[in-house]
C-alpha cells in the first residue's frame, strides 16, 4: 500500500525553523514523522529545496562580498575600461591658462562635457560655449537648462553622466579628488567617463595619484605644465581693518557663505565703505 498524505500532514511538513541568522532550515523531525520512507519523491523534493536554498545563500554572500569590495574601484566601470583613454594633465597655478587651453579642445570636439566644482562655473562655461555657437546643456543639482540637439554638457562634477560617450571631457579643479567630503565625485568622474580624451586641470598635487590610477586603468598620461600669466605679489603687512588700505576693485576671498556676507556688511558699514559697494559671488 502507498502512504496517502493528508492535507493536515502536508501543512505540517511545510513548517520551517528560522534561526537567528535568518537561514531557513526544514525540520528533519517533522519530515521523519509525517513523511514515511515510501514517500521518496516528496522527501527528495524537500531535500532539493533545502540544497537550493543553501546554494542561493552562498551565491548571495559571494555577490555581497563583491559589492562591498572597494580595493579595485577602476573595475566598477567596465565600459570605460574598454577604451584606450588619453589623459592630458594641465598643471599650474591660478591664472595660468590651463583651463582655457583645455576648453579650446572641448569647443572643437563634436561632443563633450565639462565637469566643474561649482554651479556658477558650470553656468559660465555653458554661456561661453553658447556664445560661440556650441549647443551646450547645463546640469547642476539646482537647475537644468537643456537645448534640442545639444552636443555638449556643462555640469557640476556630481552630475557627471557616466552612461554617455563623449569625444572630449574636461574635469576642472582635479586636486579636489583628495577632499574628504566631495573627493568621491572626482574619483567617479575620472574613472567612469566614457571618453577617449580627458583633460584634467588643477594644481600639481593631484598628479601622483592620477599617475597611479592610470597605471591600473592602462590609460596614457600626458603632462602639460603652466606658469602664472600675471605676477602675484605678497604684501609684507596685513590689511588690519577695512577702514584703511581697502581700495575700489579689491577682492576679498572667504571660505563660507556666512563669512562672505559678514565681510560684505563689515565693508559697507565701515568708514571707508561709504563709497564702496560690495557684491557676493
Structural summary, described in words:
Mean pLDDT is 81; it is low at 1-26. The chain contains 9 helices and 10 strands. 37% of the residues lie in helices and 18% in strands. The strands form 2 sheets. Strands 6-5-7-4-8-9-3-10 form an 8-stranded mixed sheet, sandwiched between helices. Strands 1-2 form a two-stranded antiparallel sheet. Helix 7 (183-192) links the parallel strand 8 and strand 9 (194-202). The longest helix is centred in the first third of the chain and has 29 residues, at 40-68. With 281 residues, it is α/β, with parallel strands linked by helices.
The helix fraction, in percent, is 25-40%
Give me the side-by-side strand order of the main sheet. 6-5-7-4-8-9-3-10
SS class: alpha/beta
What is the overall shape? Answer: elongated
Rounded radius of gyration (Å): 31 Å
Strand content: 15-25%
Mean pLDDT across all residues, rounded? 81
Distance between the termini: 91 Å
Please describe the biggest sheet, giving its number of strands, its sense, and whether it closes into a barrel: 8 strands, mixed
Low-confidence stretches are 1-26
SSE diagram, text form:
Blueprint: H1 7-13, E1 16-18, E2 24-26, H2 28-34, H3 40-68, H4 78-81, E3 86-91, H5 98-108, E4 112-116, H6 119-131, E5 136-139, E6 144-145, E7 152-156, E8 165-171, H7 183-192, E9 194-202, H8 207-217, E10 220-225, H9 257-269
Parallel strand pairs: 3-9, 3-10, 4-7, 4-8, 5-7, 8-9
Antiparallel strand pairs: 1-2, 5-6
Amino acid at each position: 500500500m502507498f502512504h496517502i498524505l493528508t492535507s493536515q500532514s502536508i501543512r505540517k511538513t511545510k513548517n520551517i525553523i528560522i534561526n537567528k541568522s535568518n537561514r531557513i532550515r526544514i525540520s528533519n523531525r517533522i519530515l521523519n514523522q509525517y513523511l514515511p520512507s515510501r514517500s521518496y519523491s516528496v522527501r527528495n523534493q524537500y531535500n532539493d529545496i533545502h540544497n537550493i536554498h543553501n546554494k542561493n545563500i552562498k551565491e548571495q554572500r559571494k555577490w555581497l562580498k563583491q559589492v562591498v569590495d572597494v580595493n579595485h574601484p577602476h573595475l566598477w566601470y567596465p565600459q570605460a575600461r574598454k577604451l584606450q583613454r588619453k589623459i592630458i594633465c594641465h598643471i599650474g597655478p591660478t591664472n595660468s591658462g590651463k583651463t582655457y587651453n583645455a576648453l579650446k579642445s572641448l569647443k572643437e570636439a563634436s561632443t563633450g562635457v565639462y565637469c566643474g566644482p561649482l554651479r556658477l562655473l558650470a553656468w559660465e562655461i555653458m554661456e561661453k560655449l553658447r556664445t560661440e555657437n556650441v549647443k551646450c546643456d547645463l546640469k547642476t543639482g539646482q537647475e537644468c537648462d537643456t537645448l534640442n540637439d545639444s552636443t555638449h554638457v556643462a555640469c557640476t562634477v556630481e552630475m557627471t553622466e557616466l552612461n554617455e560617450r563623449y569625444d572630449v571631457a574636461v574635469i576642472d579643479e582635479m586636486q579636489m579628488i583628495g577632499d574628504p567630503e566631495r573627493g568621491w565625485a572626482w574619483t567617479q568622474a575620472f574613472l567612469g567617463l566614457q571618453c577617449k580624451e580627458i583633460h584634467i586641470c588643477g594644481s600639481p598635487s593631484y598628479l601622483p595619484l592620477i599617475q597611479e590610477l592610470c597605471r591600473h586603468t592602462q590609460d596614457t598620461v600626458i603632462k602639460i605644465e603652466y606658469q602664472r600669466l600675471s605676477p602675484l605679489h605678497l604684501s609684507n603687512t596685513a590689511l588690519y581693518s577695512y577702514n584703511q588700505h581697502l581700495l575700489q576693485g579689491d577682492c576679498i576671498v572667504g571660505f563660507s557663505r556666512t563669512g562672505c556676507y559678514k565681510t560684505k556688511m563689515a565693508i559697507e558699514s565701515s568708514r571707508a565703505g561709504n563709497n564702496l559697494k560690495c557684491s557676493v559671488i
